[in-house]
Amino acid sequence: MKRRAFPGSGREIDEKYERASHWLRAAIFGNVRSRDWCIAHGVRIQKAAGEGINSAGGFLVPVELANAIIDIREYYGAFRRRARIYPMASDETSTPRRPGGTGAFFFGENSGATSSSVTVDRIGLTAKKIGSLILVSSELEEDSTHDAVDFVANEIAYAFALKEDDCAFNGDGTQSFGHSFGITQIVLDGNHNIAKVVAATGHNTFLTIDATDIANLISAVKAAAIPNAAWFISQTAFAQTFCRLAGADGGAYLRTENVDGVATPFYLGFPVILCQKLPLISTTLTGKAMMVFGDMYAGAVLGERRGVTLARSPDRYMDIDQIGILGTERFTAVIHDVGDNTNPGMLAALVAP
């Protein structure tokens, strides 16, 4: 079942759907009556010059629909749900990071204190544009208000969430991933061996991982990562590893809570964030990262240069009576704290032997 763009009911929700629907009909479908409605009710139909496939650029999404897409992205996306989101004022910027701090030392009366300094460096962020092109029937504007808005919001948000997760977890630095490096690749590069937790011999499937493998993964992050740590796994890993292990223990270590409106499993007291871009197979994963653990907020940044823009093409798919809607955004995913070969970081991954 698709998530509603505006959960709940009542007059306020109906008004949000009405505003978003009239904007869609005016900006995307060119409906004159909805355009007049938007003008009368203060809903701006604003162009974003140079963005998208319209001759004069795409349309900036109004705040109601933009917030709905953001909420749905967070619902679908594992990375966006837990990472630190940093607004970018330009395509290239940086944000400070504190990898080290001051020290404390004993010193006697009439003797000087030992000095130390805070270590601060910078995380470079370079935003890249992604797009999601969906085809909709020209009759969509004639459908119910809720259906039209929910369809567009869900399709665009789901596509963006998957791409953000793919970059953050699997990015190999190529154009396909916006030149991002994901954590499952970083832990295998030979420079972050503390974060690379290799499971026991023979434990190369989710059905063979045991409690010791899980404990070793938890121990591979900084103590500071524990209070806000979470598991990042696929539903296959969740079912075949956590549910299996919990079942053997009578289910004492597995529960479900509502977190920010999302039903979230907890295993060993840590939230389980399901990710479609981590391994989904039951067969061998030799040499590959199987799951991730740690504090994503402290160990990663999602740089956001620009929110969602929608553009339309009513001509390209005229022969099949459909309209192309292109959603775009600019973002970057940076994993910046997985430690090195000696010191643990905020994130670590379990790798199959």
List the main descriptive attributes of the protein structure presented here:
7-stranded mixed beta sheet; phage-related protein like fold; 15 strands; 6-stranded mixed beta sheet; 29% helix; alpha+beta; 353 residues
Provide a descriptive summary of the structure in words.
There is one protein chain. With 353 residues, the protein is α+β, with helices and mostly antiparallel strands. It has one domain: phage-related protein like fold (Alpha-Beta Complex), CATH 3.90.1690. It is 29% helix and 28% strand. The strands form three sheets. The protein has a seven-stranded mixed beta sheet. Helix 1 crosses helix 2. The two termini are 38 Å apart.
* Biggest sheet layout: 7 strands, mixed
β-strand amount? 25-35%
Shape descriptor: elongated
Gap between N and C termini, in Å?
A: 38 Å
Number of strands: 15
State the helicity in percent bands.
25-40%
- Please, how many helices? 9
CATH architecture: Alpha-Beta Complex
What's the overall average pLDDT, rounded? 84
CATH topology: phage-related protein like fold
Poorly predicted runs of 5 or more residues: 50-56, 115-120
- N to C succession of SSEs: HHEEHHEEEEHHEHEHEEEEHEEE
Gyration radius from CA atoms, angstroms: 24 Å
Which CATH C-level class is it? Alpha Beta
Number of individual domains: 1
State the strand order across the main sheet: 7-15-12-8-11-10-9
What class do helices, strands and sheet pairing give? alpha+beta
